[in-house]
Amino acid sequence: MKILLVEDDSLIAGLVSKALQAEGYNVEHVLNGEDGYLLLKRNKYDGLILDIMLPGMNGREICRKLREEGSRVPIVMLTALGSTQDIVRGLRFGADEYVTKPFDFKELLARLGTVIRRSCGETAVLNDWILTVDDLVFDRDALSLKRGATPIELTSMEYGLLELLMSQVGKVVTRTRILQNVWGLYTDPQTNIVEVYIRRLRVKIAPNGEPELIRTIRGRGYRMIATKGP
What we know:
Blueprint (H helix, E strand, L loop, with lengths): L1 E5 L3 H13 L3 E5 L2 H10 L4 E4 L8 H10 L6 E5 L4 H9 L4 E4 L4 H19 L6 E4 L2 E4 L4 E4 L2 E3 L3 H12 L4 E3 H9 L9 H12 L9 E4 L3 E4 L6
Parallel strand pairs: 1-2, 1-3, 3-4, 4-5
Antiparallel strand pairs: 6-7, 7-8, 8-9, 10-12, 11-12
């Protein structure tokens, strides 16, 4: 997935970029509001992390313009302005989430993942927030995953991959589609990133040795299956 980071503090931007890239995101960074706004007009992004106090054009103005123009890009505001009034103003201008500095990277990643999934959910064919395959239950709104009574924690990209597979239960999902939908990659990076994440998912969603739900379809892709009958 492709994320635009608009942040004028190079140190913070570098740390945020590394954290996002470690989760598999493709990150583009600019230092001022005008450049950020121009990129948003030209390119499609899966998410936007936006500081408020920016040179050229401030974050609230960018947010307001995007929403007035009909853009639905998920926006997380990342700023030192943390009063209740600041937060309310940011949300009124069209931000989906608001994270104040100093911040925890886990919180930022979780909030970004949540707004992206909400955005995907609004355009998905499936309307239900809760996906179920056997005793694996994924509440996309609460970002909660359980196998039976056992809670499971995933990274943002693992959640994205699992959601894609569960929403297509019984169907083959190709490697190309996974790269496009989860990582926003339209050319094959010639790495084993998909295989690595599939292996991780298989282990994590069977915490107590439950039956395997993700099958490899050789030469085609992967399929999520229900092992229990109706």
